Please model this.
Amino acid sequence: MVRAPTCPICDRELAPSSITESPVFPFCSVRCKQIDLLRWCRGEYAVVDRLLPEQLADQLADQDTAE
Model:
């Protein structure tokens, strides 16, 4: 059985229609959406992706050519 979606901030269950109709989806309210934005701004969330050695070498080479 599929679970109903929940707000990632307060875990309130969302109505199935909110997926297509809510302007604040996946949040339940503007307040929860703003809390999420504040957490991003404070650096509480981070997108972490390991760089492979060849990706790191390419990035360093790009920086050297830009200078």
